[in-house]
Amino acid sequence: MTKETLNVEIEVLTGLHIGAGNDAVQIGGVDSAVIKDPISKLPYIPGSSLKGKLRSLLEVEGSYGVKDDKINKYFGPTPEYITSKKEDKAYVQTPTSLIFRDFMLAESERWASGEITTEFKTEIRIDRDKGTAQDRALRTIERVPPSVKFVGQILIRYSNDSELTTIKSVLQKAFELLNNDYLGGSGSRGYGAVKIKQY
After folding, report:
1. Residue 141: in which H helix or E strand, if any?
2. CB distance 46 to 39 below 8 Å
3. Is the distance from CB of 182 to CB of 158 less than 8 angstroms?
4. How many structural domains comprise the chain?
5. Assuming Cys at both sites, which of 33, 73, 97, 174 could form a disulfide with 54, CB separation 3.0 to 4.6 Å?
6. Contact present, 18 and 183 (Cβ < 8 Å)
7. Tens of pLDDT along 86-111?
């Protein structure tokens, strides 16, 4: 089995929120912080978040489906897929073709110096009957601001050139779908528009 590395860039077009999963909220604090590297304290995009989003888009919008053989080979078989192959004597589980690394800030030194920082967006919930803000419905969301870029790698494991071409074609389709969707949370409210490309 051979490996090839794809260098990938993700540019944030509208505020990006991939949550850190806060257990508690301090009074006057942020209700939902972005995930950050525990050492550098800088935002990053987990490889698992990107992998899951691309897979979901391919299954829902890319006409592959959750039990598609290629998707389960490239992104890893789900328990449901393995169960569906239980009676298939020809099926052999192989290593997952795609390995997603975490995506780090392209200009981390500008973040470390404080030149670039995250933004804090305050939102409210509207009372549908009164048309006014609900009581205790104010929340503050941390976001990575537009124009920030993240860089990372996707490793491809393949058996032959034909398989490599097919995997790259599926990935390119996934990139196109993501460029017309969103990454992270609250995409229906304008968050997470990104431009992803190989460089």
Report:
1. strand 139-143
2. no
3. no
4. 1
5. 174
6. yes
7. 889 888 888 999 999 999 999 988 99
